[in-house]
Amino acid sequence: MRWLRRNIVVIAGVLTLGYLIVPNLVVMVFSFNKPNGRFNYSWQRFSLDAWKDPCGVADLCGSLTLSFQIAAWATLGATVLGTMIAFALVRYRFRARGSINSLIFLPMAMPEVVMAASLLTLFLNLGARLGFWTVLIAHIMFCLSFVVTAVKARVMSMDPRLEEAARDLYAGPVQTFVRVTLPIAAPGIAAGALLAFALSFDDFIITNFNAGSTVTFPMFVWGSAQRGTPVQINVIGTAMFIVAVLLVVGGQLVSNRRKKTAATT
Amino acid sequence: MTETASTSRGGGDVRLSGISKTYGSFHAVKPLDLTVPQGSFFALLGASGCGKTTTLRMIAGLEEPTTGTVFLGDKDVTGLPPYKRPVNTVFQSYALFPHLDIYENVAFGLRRRGIKSVRGQVGEMLDLVQLGDFAKRKPHQLSGGQQQRVAVARALINHPQVLLLDEPLGALDLKLRRQMQLELKRIQTEVGITFIHVTHDQEEAMTMADTVAVMNGGLVEQLGSPADLYENPETTFVANFLGTSNLIEAEVAEIHGDEVVVTAGGAKLRLPAGRCSAPTASGGRLLVGIRPEKISLAHADDAGTIPDGRNRITGRIADSSFIGVSTQYVIDSPVCPEFEVYAQNIERDSRLAPGAEVVLHWNPAHSFGLDAAQDIDAGIETVDEEVS
Amino acid sequence: MTITEAPPAAPATPPEPPVRKASTRKRLVPYWLLLPGILWLLVFFALPMVYQASTSVQTGSLEKGFQVTWHFATYWDALQEYYPQFVRSLLYAGTATILCLLLGYPLAYLIAFKAGRWRNLLLVLVIAPFFTSFLIRTLAWKTILADGGTVVGILDSLHVLDVTSWLGWTEGNRVLATPMAVVCGLTYNFLPFMILPLYTSLERIDGRLHEAAGDLYARPLTTFRKVTFPLSMPGVVSGTLLTFIPASGDYVNAELLGSTDTKMVGSVIQTQFLRVLDYPTAAALSFILMAIVLLMVTFYIRRAGTEDLV
């Protein structure tokens, strides 16, 4: 009983973690299923069929490629624009600061469906053709604020004297930016970019409103939830999960080794 | 106005001519003229917000003066950005580049000037600051003292005409600070470069610099050698900020040639006219200052043994604290409510305990006279208050 | 400190030398940096809000086109017809937010203070679910909560389902297609958005504060109540906002895990916009949702006293 009381936080934490992880495990396990009907919801028997032919379902891999393309461009756009805003906000004093801060905060404080619907009204009113470009525009819009937040935090914690030191040591404005500012702000920019990629790749609601007949991967999954879920969806979900985990672990190992070698020499 | 500056004499002097800096309506530095001779160790001393760091940053080029001109030798560098000035800075809390190792930090300035073979110079520099073994470490893996030495090496490797030091020892503990003071002094003597050192620590300024400029409220209050500033303060701020002074409010009674006689609370005090920084006239007011260690203390019973010709004040010991080399007394006197006296512990008189009636006496030549219109407490509470 | 107007050093200033001004080019730098991004937000975020507001007071039909007629009755009609969905959305989102806080806090606390060298691994595990598309993961809940499945079996044998049915959260021995399934999905989907801000603010707390509180005779629970929790308030505030706001507008969980009786307002907006093509009603609904959320957020931030969330 005393043990229970002392470890209550650990137990609760681990249970929560389980709640977070179990669906991923289910996705993984069911990528080896061979369902009877159109829906892959109950376990029948083990099979590697889906893994052998991940693109075996019409339009699946096309939607995946499209999602990757959109996410890559949206990340690039949002990261560049967001980093510029973040630097301006931290480094300069100017008028309208308050309203600009709210303009950046509001997209994060707005239910997605509201942004989705209002953006669609704009596009309808302008007579824009819905598709790749409207989705990309929307994605850059809602990723922007998150990039600003991530980069801003990093730039704010950066000692302005570092840049002064660089200028003092014969680095001109461009050199200072390339040699000192950018490397030090890099983790923040990278975090912002990763976040933007994840948000864009996984976005459903805003995309669903503004994609017209274009189908991204989340939209494909949504559609299949009505028509029938192919096992390949689970295969792709699992593969992405494994690749991402490997990247994270690999990155961690590399940075650990770097730290160690730096400490021993 | 620069044509007259002689190249031979002022070859490497730093000259500030009428420079000032205003932020909105706040005058950080009021129009200021200052010459730092080549090869000297110069200190700008003052409490936080007195304008000393702003002055330094204007020399470095990190701050653009609102008015005035900065000369290096006879060259006007006012409009030059920092990366085009032959001046380097050791920043407060060092500002070492966290993403570069020590070697690359030190090599930074050379590389930016397009020098390809830096290995030899960096090695030499790291040896000079005794950090040869740490070349591959990152700054956060070094102690505060080591980081400080890297900062010095990173600046000195460029052979600047002037090295600026912005509170370079502020982040170190007391013992290390003492050690680094001597170390910096040694390096300065060795390389012979002009050092301009900003500090709020009067002891640090006096130990290291040959010339000290005391700044207050955006102005230089007084400039001179440490001994000169200490012995002949010209303002109450300097008198109180550098060490401790007893300041007596007095009235000028008469002037005999180069001797001024004043009265204060019934006592008659004398001081040399040459040590009065304020104009004196009979009936005028004057602040008479005397350093606590210049005063001798005698028990009232021994008043007869005090030689003639010395200034005397009577009082009662309010408090005494024994601190080893000396004993510090606080004397309650009609002339001045809290008179401080530091007595060397040569022969201790057991009668000198709180409550005892005493006579204070000192050589009139040690007194100094200040303008009575000033705030008598200027510079007092600022001494140890700031940490930044 | 006292600053004296020291008379001895005051120099007689000769005619004022020209005062330098920062060059215009330099002063414009921040505006150039801001311009593209801010323009993007103005055109694709702020302007759409205006269009939406105008759409909401239009009347007409798809064939004849819509005109602004200041027909505010749309709002009234929309509210009257869809208020159950509004109430449900706020209720579900609120419940999910509270559940996220209750579930997320121990885990964030665990990672911040007790994880030691496992800290990074645990953090990766918290964000790992993101690596798989949330729609796929939400579909996985259909399997987990399936009728006659393990989870339902356990809940049934523990008589939990009896209680929840009585409360109207579940129906008979079904969990899927009930409010409980929707709330469960919402909680699951937005839990990391609660945990990460909580962790960030907990991690900033100096561990010595716990020792100090213990030293000052506070029991562990008192320490938590008087020291840890108040200090983690910024995390609680941003975590609840990051959970509640998206949850209130979400319709994915309601559509995938719920039934027609659990429809949230997001579903209605989506249907009106993309299926029924009744743009004014959809715009009005979306506008009302935005107003409610903004009001609640403003009120909440005022109460919690943290203004700097960006």
Automatic annotation (TrEMBL), chain A:
<dbReference type="Pfam" id="PF00528">
    <property type="entry name" value="BPD_transp_1"/>
</dbReference>
<keyword id="KW-0812">Transmembrane</keyword>
<feature type="transmembrane region" description="Helical">
    <location>
        <begin position="231"/>
        <end position="250"/>
    </location>
</feature>
<feature type="transmembrane region" description="Helical">
    <location>
        <begin position="130"/>
        <end position="151"/>
    </location>
</feature>
<keyword id="KW-1133">Transmembrane helix</keyword>
<feature type="domain" description="ABC transmembrane type-1">
    <location>
        <begin position="64"/>
        <end position="254"/>
    </location>
</feature>
<dbReference type="GO" id="GO:0055085">
    <property type="term" value="P:transmembrane transport"/>
</dbReference>
<dbReference type="GO" id="GO:0005886">
    <property type="term" value="C:plasma membrane"/>
</dbReference>
<keyword id="KW-1003">Cell membrane</keyword>
<feature type="transmembrane region" description="Helical">
    <location>
        <begin position="7"/>
        <end position="32"/>
    </location>
</feature>
<keyword id="KW-0472">Membrane</keyword>
<dbReference type="InterPro" id="IPR035906">
    <property type="entry name" value="MetI-like_sf"/>
</dbReference>
<protein>
    <submittedName>
        <fullName>ABC transporter permease</fullName>
    </submittedName>
</protein>
<dbReference type="InterPro" id="IPR000515">
    <property type="entry name" value="MetI-like"/>
</dbReference>
<dbReference type="InterPro" id="IPR051789">
    <property type="entry name" value="Bact_Polyamine_Transport"/>
</dbReference>
UniProtKB/TrEMBL annotation, chain B:
<keyword id="KW-0547">Nucleotide-binding</keyword>
<dbReference type="GO" id="GO:0043190">
    <property type="term" value="C:ATP-binding cassette (ABC) transporter complex"/>
</dbReference>
<comment type="similarity">
    <text>Belongs to the ABC transporter superfamily. Spermidine/putrescine importer (TC 3.A.1.11.1) family.</text>
</comment>
<dbReference type="InterPro" id="IPR050093">
    <property type="entry name" value="ABC_SmlMolc_Importer"/>
</dbReference>
<keyword id="KW-0067">ATP-binding</keyword>
<protein>
    <recommendedName>
        <fullName>Spermidine/putrescine import ATP-binding protein PotA</fullName>
        <ecNumber>7.6.2.11</ecNumber>
    </recommendedName>
</protein>
<dbReference type="InterPro" id="IPR013611">
    <property type="entry name" value="Transp-assoc_OB_typ2"/>
</dbReference>
<dbReference type="InterPro" id="IPR017879">
    <property type="entry name" value="PotA_ATP-bd"/>
</dbReference>
<keyword id="KW-1278">Translocase</keyword>
<keyword id="KW-0813">Transport</keyword>
<dbReference type="GO" id="GO:0016887">
    <property type="term" value="F:ATP hydrolysis activity"/>
</dbReference>
<dbReference type="InterPro" id="IPR027417">
    <property type="entry name" value="P-loop_NTPase"/>
</dbReference>
<dbReference type="InterPro" id="IPR005893">
    <property type="entry name" value="PotA-like"/>
</dbReference>
<keyword id="KW-0472">Membrane</keyword>
<dbReference type="GO" id="GO:0005524">
    <property type="term" value="F:ATP binding"/>
</dbReference>
From TrEMBL, chain C:
<dbReference type="InterPro" id="IPR035906">
    <property type="entry name" value="MetI-like_sf"/>
</dbReference>
<dbReference type="Pfam" id="PF00528">
    <property type="entry name" value="BPD_transp_1"/>
</dbReference>
<feature type="transmembrane region" description="Helical">
    <location>
        <begin position="120"/>
        <end position="140"/>
    </location>
</feature>
<protein>
    <submittedName>
        <fullName>ABC transporter permease</fullName>
    </submittedName>
</protein>
<feature type="domain" description="ABC transmembrane type-1">
    <location>
        <begin position="86"/>
        <end position="300"/>
    </location>
</feature>
<feature type="region of interest" description="Disordered">
    <location>
        <begin position="1"/>
        <end position="21"/>
    </location>
</feature>
<feature type="compositionally biased region" description="Pro residues">
    <location>
        <begin position="8"/>
        <end position="17"/>
    </location>
</feature>
<dbReference type="GO" id="GO:0055085">
    <property type="term" value="P:transmembrane transport"/>
</dbReference>
<comment type="similarity">
    <text>Belongs to the binding-protein-dependent transport system permease family. CysTW subfamily.</text>
</comment>
<keyword id="KW-1133">Transmembrane helix</keyword>
<feature type="transmembrane region" description="Helical">
    <location>
        <begin position="29"/>
        <end position="51"/>
    </location>
</feature>
<keyword id="KW-0472">Membrane</keyword>
<keyword id="KW-1003">Cell membrane</keyword>
<feature type="transmembrane region" description="Helical">
    <location>
        <begin position="227"/>
        <end position="247"/>
    </location>
</feature>
<feature type="transmembrane region" description="Helical">
    <location>
        <begin position="282"/>
        <end position="301"/>
    </location>
</feature>
